[in-house]
């Protein structure tokens, strides 16, 4: 128990040495363990000693101590508190779990006999690892919430699963149940990054996602949300059920049998009846109806999400028969209110770091802002428009409850201007002002925010003082009095008649420059206090000041000087620089001690928030600083779109006042040099009243018989008895709960430790009966893989190997590959491959699952919709490995299945490999026709074809389906047959405003050439992996790729760095690599070059360093490896990352010019990169055997189709070696084809030689073709 770790370590070592000969030491340690508290921070050495002695104990010693240890651990873990403060290191918990894991290894039966052992899997997984919050306790979290404690818990589960098949099945069942809860949500997204969505434990608030330029909206929404009274009033506003576009307030069972309106992607609404709800699949059975109520089609989908391209997920109830029609403006206001309620409900209850308010942004398109709602607008203008819609939608026109006047105006805003007319020398006004026509002409007018002019002002007191200044109407401008029937000199002025509980001050920083007539931003210093007193700007304050001065003058025997007016005596701590205008007569009903009756605190305001604009008038960024009014510690936060961070309010002057950084002007001799004003400064200020008035005193000012402008009030209409009213909390609370549950499950499922654990389970499966693998890609999981199964999977019931592989594949494809933070993907694929090989029927299941694309989306998702290149490549690798296991050995076996229908093939596929391969090849060929709509993501489909062609039976199946002719279409569409064009034209033509435009397949040509070459039997030199298979998700290049790219950097840089010219020259070389003759060269944009320098490491003089260049290539290898291979090929690197310099046929025009941006000019323009299959192609060129060149099953029609392709032209933009290999196959022993290609090449060569711009590269490639 020493405070010194060194002393504790020495004591632990001593205890182990003594304990090996004296068993009583182990007894002492067990007693210490039993008395240990769960928050013990000095316990690590005790566990170390216990672990060492437990390993040393054998025979009778182990049998003596293990029951007591098992009982202690069972009690400690079952009684471990679930509400431990987050941030605890969990030393005791990690020790308990590590000891339990060790005891399971040495004496599993003793552990199983304890209370914990009877339900170990359920307890560890449901309480310690994957705790699911309930409606009663939504804040429950897993006990193991640190990496070390979770790792220890996974070790326990894995060790326990080795003890028996029933334990393994129990683990598998719990994991499957957990995965099924959230697989639907995860499988619909790509690149999920759970660490980016986790909210900090010390922050209670969430941010808002910026939609590009919607920071003006986010900053204001956060200000409104943090006003608890206004937020709750908005959430409490009720709308009719038919006026909402969501039915989350009804359970799925309640919805069955109801007729609803579903919004279609086109924007129209379609009527449908919910027939049934399937809780297993979480889908509704919906029967669409015609306008007359007759049934149409029946479909299955989740009505809250809809189907892609079909329903939008917006659903509404049918209005009642007696419901009054809703106007378009009311409907738009209700949409804004509904989405504002949804946004606030998520901000209030969400467990995610930020919320995406895109539906609210879409609803705000009706606000008539100056610019598109997705472009940047003025936050103050948005505030006006938003409050206008809130007023319109909360007055209860259709619901019967006027929330605006009863709650929002009363408790939040409610401010009123007092416009006064003060006559001079008016006897009626001096004697009885209530009968004066000027006094009767004074009026009150409501306001929501106060606009302050800041030009030429230093603080808000100056601006408020100018706002209160009166204007003397004299001479020809005298004002007529209806009572006196004469014109009199009158002072017209404005003051605060009623102060609101929340006051918004808008500092008018955007002003018009009358010289340029452009909007400019005023960045001058504008100071404001965190507490302000508004008394001197109110009617009561002015009258009190006047009364005080009269009393003072009366006591001194002097006359009242009404030209001065000060409240300094009322608030001596305030420094006012405002100049007072002529005063208003005080109320004669007040007593002489009227000054003493005023409560200064009732006029006191405290700063609640500051909305800041950083930038210029034409663009910038908005964010907010807001005080947490619910906190007793006066905490402030910065709300900057998705990020919410603590903020020190002492820095408000520095970040919000504007003006020069030092706040002064430096004088040098006779010249004054002003510092540049900071462009980040306050635009709107939000103040809350410190002492809110009582309800019966709010309209006290109105008792003076002042006229109030008549407002046409909206008469609330009682809601129909047939429709229920739903407020914001009821409408969205269940949706938020579902979202929180999905988020928590995502955090569990996307955890890399869980991924490693699942991989370890699969490793146990294929290593059963064999020695465990000594290779481990994850040092943290070495304990997991150190012991083989104590049972055989083959002897387990219900085909446990199949169910395990099914779970492994579904977990990989439905969860892991959708995650950005994944690791050891090649190890996972290799593990599944070994399972396929050991249990071939599992490979059959996987291939059959992929071919069932009506019920399984894997094929379309990964080959067309997936935006993650590495995820697509992983799926292709896994499918190829499975096909290798199930494919028949003889190609002719596929021939017998050629004429079978799809249904017959599906029935025969589980037991007939030939039928299975035929079914797969048909699906792949059908997928080729879909490529037109997925140009950016279809590369892996051709990679799949290329890799599968290494299997003779699959290659033969492709050839039998004329895939050679189909692929040739992508290379030369104009030379394809009419029938083939008709097949492609269904998906090929893309309509736009200019008409039908054909899709450019240029980006796919390299993949197409490689697939076509593989179909023709040309050997392939496969691309090596660019990234290491790491045990953690951070990516790193393999050493060979790092070495090759380092050589490229050295040849493209000078003195260890790349400047702008070098980077431009580098981009020119790689982007124009393989460009065809006559094609316009591409240039790197200035933004691309600048981003490269800004994002990645630089040298001290600002150039791109080698480290930064490798960081850039690593990022590209992660997201777009095709570009990395383009760069490598442009510098003569093969697919195996070796480099070859080819000797090229020299022509008269051959010149050697150094590459721009290099010092040593190693690479010359006459040196072309080595192509992927050069070695193999050269070997074939020397081989005269037709069987080595011409595929056995290539038909004459396919060869004729290939002969129509200008291979040398397409090969410039793709793989010229593949193109030449194809030409070799096409021309072999075929004089007519050879003559045709020679004529094409000669004509092209002549055309190039007559061009003004000399391009050597196509000449070299055409010369190589002619050599064939």
Notes on the structure:
- The model is unreliable at 560-595, 665-673, 697-721, 771-786, 990-996 and 1142-1190 (pLDDT under 50).
- The chain is globular and about 125 Å long.
- The strands form 9 sheets. Strands 11, 16, 19, 20, 21, 22, 23 and 26 form an 8-stranded mixed β-sheet that branches. Strands 6-5-4-3-7 form a 5-stranded antiparallel β-sheet. A 4-stranded antiparallel β-sheet has the order 10-9-15-12.
- The termini are far apart.
- The chain has 49 helices and 29 strands.
- Helix 26 (800-814) runs antiparallel to helix 27 (825-838) and helix 46 packs antiparallel against helix 47 (1216-1227).
- It has 1268 residues and is α+β, with helices and mostly antiparallel strands.
Task: Please tally the helical runs, counting DSSP H or I stretches of 4 or more residues.
Answer: 49
Q: Round the Cα radius of gyration to an integer and report it.
A: 39 Å
The proportion of strand residues reads 5-15%
Helix content: 40-55%
How does the helix and strand content classify structurally? Answer: alpha+beta
Characterize the largest beta sheet: strand count, sense, and whether it forms a barrel.
Answer: 8 strands, mixed
Can you tell me the residue ranges where pLDDT is under 50 for at least 5 consecutive residues?
560-595, 665-673, 697-721, 771-786, 990-996, 1142-1190
Report the principal-axis shape: globular
N-end to C-end Cα span:
84 Å
Mean pLDDT: 79
Please report the total strand number as a whole number. 29
């Amino acid at each position: 128990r020493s405070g010194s770790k060194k002393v504790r370590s020495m004591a632990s070592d001593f205890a182990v040495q003594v304990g090996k000969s004296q068993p009583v030491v182990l007894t002492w340690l067990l007693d210490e363990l039993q008395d240990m508290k769960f928050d013990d921070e000095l316990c690590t050495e005790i566990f170390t000693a216990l672990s060492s002695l437990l390993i040393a104990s054998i025979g009778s010693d182990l049998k003596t101590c293990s029951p007591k240890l098992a009982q202690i651990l069972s009690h400690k873990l079952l009684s471990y508190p679930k509400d431990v403060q987050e941030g605890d290191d969990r030393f005791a918990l990690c020790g308990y779990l590590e000891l339990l894991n060790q005891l399971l290894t040495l004496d599993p039966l003793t552990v199983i006999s304890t209370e914990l052992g009877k339900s170990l899997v359920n307890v560890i997984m449901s309480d310690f690892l994957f705790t699911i919050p309930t409606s009663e306790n939504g804040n429950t979290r897993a006990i193991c919430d640190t990496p070390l404690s979770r790792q220890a818990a996974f070790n326990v589960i894995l060790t326990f699963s080795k003890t028996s098949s029933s334990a393994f099945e129990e683990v598998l069942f719990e994991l499957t149940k957990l995965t099924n809860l959230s697989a639907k949500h995860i499988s619909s997204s790509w690149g999920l990054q759970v660490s980016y969505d986790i909210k900090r434990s010390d922050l209670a608030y969430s941010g808002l996602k910026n939609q590009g330029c919607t920071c003006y909206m986010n900053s204001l929404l956060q200000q409104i949300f943090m006003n608890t009274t206004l937020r709750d009033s908005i959430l409490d506003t009720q709308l009719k059920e038919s006026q909402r576009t969501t039915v989350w307030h009804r359970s799925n069972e309640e919805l069955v049998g109801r007729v609803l309106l579903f919004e279609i992607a086109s924007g129209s609404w379609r009527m449908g009846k919910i027939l049934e709800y399937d809780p297993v699949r979480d889908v509704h059975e919906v029967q669409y109806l015609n306008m007359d109520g007759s049934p149409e089609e029946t479909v299955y989908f989740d009505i809250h999400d809809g189907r892609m391209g079909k329903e939008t997920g917006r659903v509404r109830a049918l209005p009642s028969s007696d419901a009054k029609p809703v106007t378009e403006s009311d409907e738009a206001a209700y949409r804004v209110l509904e989405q504002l309620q949804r946004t606030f409900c998520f901000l209030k209850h969400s467990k995610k770091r930020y919320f995406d308010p895109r539906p609210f942004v879409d609803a705000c398109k009706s606000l008539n802002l100056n610019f598109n709602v997705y472009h940047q607008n003025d936050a103050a203008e948005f505030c006006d428009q938003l409050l206008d819609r809130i007023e319109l939608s909360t007055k209860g026109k259709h619901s019967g409850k006027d929330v605006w006047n009863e709650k929002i105006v009363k408790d939040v805003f409610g401010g009123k201007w007092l416009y006064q007319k003060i006559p001079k020398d008016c006897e009626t006004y001096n004697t009885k002002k209530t009968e004066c026509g000027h006094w009767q002409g004074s009026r009150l007018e409501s306001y929501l925010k106060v606009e302050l002019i800041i030009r030429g002002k230093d603080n808000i007191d100056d601006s408020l003082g100018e706002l209160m200044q009166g204007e003397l109407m004299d001479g020809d401008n005298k004002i007529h009095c209806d009572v006196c029937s004469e014109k009199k000199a009158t002072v017209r002025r404005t003051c605060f008649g009623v102060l609101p509980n929340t006051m918004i001050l808008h500092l008018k920083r955007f002003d018009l420059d009358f010289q340029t007539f452009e909007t400019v931003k005023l960045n001058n210093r504008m100071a404001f206090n965190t507490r302000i007193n508004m008394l001197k700007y109110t009617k009561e304050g002015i009258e009190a000041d006047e009364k005080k001065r009269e009393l003072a003058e009366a006591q001194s025997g002097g006359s009242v000087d009404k030209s001065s007016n000060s409240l300094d005596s009322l608030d001596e701590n305030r420094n006012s620089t405002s100049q007072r205008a002529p005063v208003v007569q005080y109320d004669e009903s007040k007593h002489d001690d009227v000054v003493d009756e005023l409560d200064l605190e009732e006029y006191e305001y405290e700063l609640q928030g500051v909305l800041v604009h950083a930038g210029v008038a034409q663009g910038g960024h908005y964010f907010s600083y807001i005080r947490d009014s619910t906190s007793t510690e006066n905490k402030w936060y910065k709300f900057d779109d998705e990020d919410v961070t603590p903020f020190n309010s002492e820095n408000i002057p520095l970040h919000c006042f504007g003006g020069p950084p030092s706040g002064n002007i430096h004088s040098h001799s006779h010249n004054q040099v002003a510092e540049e004003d900071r462009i980040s400064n306050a635009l709107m200020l939000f103040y809350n009243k410190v002492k809110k008035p009582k309800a019966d005193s709010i309209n006290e000012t109105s008792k003076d018989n002042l006229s109030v402008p008549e407002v046409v009030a909206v008469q609330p209409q009682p809601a129909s008895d047939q429709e229920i009213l739903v407020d914001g909390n009821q409408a969205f609370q269940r949706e938020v709960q579902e979202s929180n549950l999905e988020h928590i499950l995502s955090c569990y499922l996307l955890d890399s430790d869980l991924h490693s654990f699942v991989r370890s389970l699969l490793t146990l499966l294929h290593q059963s009966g064999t020695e465990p693998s000594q290779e481990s890609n994850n040092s943290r999981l070495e304990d997991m893989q150190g012991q083989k199964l104590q049972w055989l999977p083959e002897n387990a019931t219900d085909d446990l190997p199949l169910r395990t592989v099914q779970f492994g594949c579904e977990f990989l494809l439905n969860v892991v590959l959708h995650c950005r933070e994944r690791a050891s993907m090649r190890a996972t694929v290799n593990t599944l491959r070994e399972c396929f090989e050991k249990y071939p029927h599992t490979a059959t299941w996987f291939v059959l699952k992929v071919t069932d694309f009506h019920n399984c989306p894997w094929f379309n998702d990964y080959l067309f919709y997936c935006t993650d290149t590495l995820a697509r490549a992983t799926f292709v690798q896994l499918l190829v490995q499975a096909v290798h296991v199930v494919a028949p050995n003889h190609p002719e076996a596929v021939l017998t299945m050629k004429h079978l229908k799809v249904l017959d093939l599906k029935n025969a596929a589980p037991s007939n490999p030939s039928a299975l391969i035929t079914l797969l090849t048909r699906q792949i060929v059908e997928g080729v026709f879909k490529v037109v709509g997925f140009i950016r993501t279809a590369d892996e489909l051709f990679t799949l074809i290329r890799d599968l062609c290494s299997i003779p039976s699959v290659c033969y199946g492709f050839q039998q389906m004329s895939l050679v002719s189909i692929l040739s279409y992508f290379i030369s569409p104009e030379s394809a047959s009419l029938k083939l064009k008709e097949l492609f034209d269904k998906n090929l033509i893309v309509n736009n405003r200019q008409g039908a435009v054909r899709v450019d397949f240029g980006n796919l040509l390299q993949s197409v050439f490689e697939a076509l070459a593989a179909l023709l039997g040309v050997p392939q030199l496969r691309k090596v992996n660019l990234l290491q298979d790491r045990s953690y998700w951070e990516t790193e290049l393999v050493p060979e790729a790092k070495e090759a790219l380092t050589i490229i950097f050295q040849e493209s840089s000078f003195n260890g760095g790349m400047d702008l010219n070098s980077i431009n020259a580098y981009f020119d070389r790689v982007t124009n690599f393989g460009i065809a003759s006559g094609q316009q060269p591409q240039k790197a944009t200035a933004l691309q070059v600048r981003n490269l320098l800004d994002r990645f490491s630089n040298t001290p003089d600002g150039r791109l360093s080698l480290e930064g260049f490798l960081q850039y290539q690593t990022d590209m290898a992660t997201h777009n490896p095709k570009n990395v291979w383009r760069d490598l090929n442009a510098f003569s690197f093969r697919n195996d990352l070796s480099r070859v310099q080819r000797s090229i046929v020299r022509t008269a025009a051959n010149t050697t010019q150094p590459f721009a941006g290099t010092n040593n000019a190693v690479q010359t323009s006459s040196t072309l990169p080595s192509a992927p299959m050069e070695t193999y192609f050269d070997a074939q060129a020397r081989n005269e055997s037709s069987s080595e060149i011409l595929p056995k099953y290539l038909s004459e029609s396919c060869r004729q189709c290939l002969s129509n392709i200008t291979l040398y032209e397409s090969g410039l933009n793709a793989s010229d070696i593949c193109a030449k290999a194809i030409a070799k196959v096409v021309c072999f022993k075929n004089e007519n084809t050879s003559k045709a290609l020679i004529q094409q090449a000669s004509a092209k060569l002549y055309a190039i030689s007559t061009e003004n711009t000399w391009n050597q590269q196509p000449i070299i490639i055409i010369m190589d073709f002619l050599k064939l």
